[in-house]
Amino acid sequence: MSQRELVVLGTASQVPTKVRNHNGYLLRWGPEGVLFDPGEGTQRQMTYAGVSVTDITRIAITHFHGDHSLGLPGIVQRINLDKVPHPVHAYYPASGEMYFERLCNATAFRRNVELHPHPIAAAGPLDAPDAPFAMAAVQLSHPVDTFGYRLTEPGSRRLLPERLRALGVHGPDIGRLQERGALEIDGRTVTLAEVSTPRPGQSFAFVMDTRLCDGVYELAAGADMLVIEATFLDADAHLAEEYGHLTAAQAARVAAEAGVRKLVLTHFSQRYQSLDPHLEEAEKHFSGEIVVAKDLDRIPLPPRRSGSGEV
Q1: Residue 1, pLDDT score
Q2: Cβ neighbours of residue 279 under 8 Å, at least 6 residues apart?
Q3: Whether the Cβ atoms of residue 201 and residue 225 lie closer than 8 Å to each other
Q4: Does 306 score more than 80 pLDDT?
Q5: Which of 190, 191, 240, 265 is the most exposed place for a label (fewest CB within 10 A)?
Q6: Are 135 and 126 in contact (CB under 8 A)?
Q7: Burial class (CB in 10 A: 0-12, 13-18, 19+), 8
Q8: What angle do CA 152, 154, 156 make, to 5 degrees?
Q9: Is 153 exposed, middle or buried (0-12, 13-18, 19+ CB in 10 A)?
Q10: Cα 245 to Cα 49, 78, 227, 267, distances in angstroms
Q11: Percent of the chain residues past pLDDT 70, beyond the cut
């Protein structure tokens, strides 16, 4: 199993179908598990997908429409039932505080797990204790208050073995050089920059329920993986605009203009039985890797970029 992968729990929009459950996406990132937009049936879909609530370290809700949040009561109660051994952090629009409280307290249950709320009042960086990535929220355009999420790993440096050998750095001195940034070796100062190359961190963007707006491009910019709604086809673009959604073609154009590496389309209207046309539309605008998500898919993040910017 990839250490960094998206587990797709549901791909339907407002109405589920026989093959598409309501929304739900678990991003596995090493020890972290970020559950995005748990709609109805998420708890059962996790069972089918072979993932546990103990994998969840954070919950991120884009907005409080039912297909993105009505699974929250079951998830919260299951976290407590299974006595998850770590705190769980929850992110959501502050304007929906009333809904968050109602959902988390829908029925009686025994509380034994720390659930730390992080209501989002405005776009910007988010508090993400102990996370190996930075989290940010960006405002989107939908009939209710909606935020997209961006996860960005700090950059690091990749050591160059040939340079280490050439400058006489070996054994424990390699670790000391990484820690200190410079080290005296045989009478001269060797810097970390001399024996390494920059290695960009990975990035992930999550865009749901929105018209085309600046926030979509901001979230997508240079993302290694963009998970984005593609509720409609271009033939129904007038419905997308009216109800605050995107078409597959719009999502693909965003990915192309933003320099995305892997595009994951999801959140499909029940009016479409086949999703082949979504892929066909997207391929007209984006030449990179496209995944038309299916329930229970496991989609790995692309390999890390090298220091030169290539994989």
Answers
A1: 40
A2: 248, 265, 290, 292
A3: no
A4: no
A5: 191
A6: yes
A7: buried
A8: 140
A9: buried
A10: 27, 31, 14, 10
A11: 97
Inter-residue contact 298 to 257 (CB < 8 Å): no
State the average pLDDT over residues 240-265. Answer: 98
**β-strands 298-300, 196-199: how paired?**
unpaired
* pLDDT at residue 310 tops 70: no
Residues in the chain: 311
**Amino acid letter at 60?**
A
Tokens encoding 200: 């960009």
Contact 41, 21 (CB under 8 A): yes
Confidence at 304, pLDDT banded by 50, 70, 90: confident
Tokens 């029925």 appear where?
107
Predicted local distance difference test score (pLDDT) of residue 58: 98
Beta bridge partners of 92: 119
Active-site residues, by number, are: 67
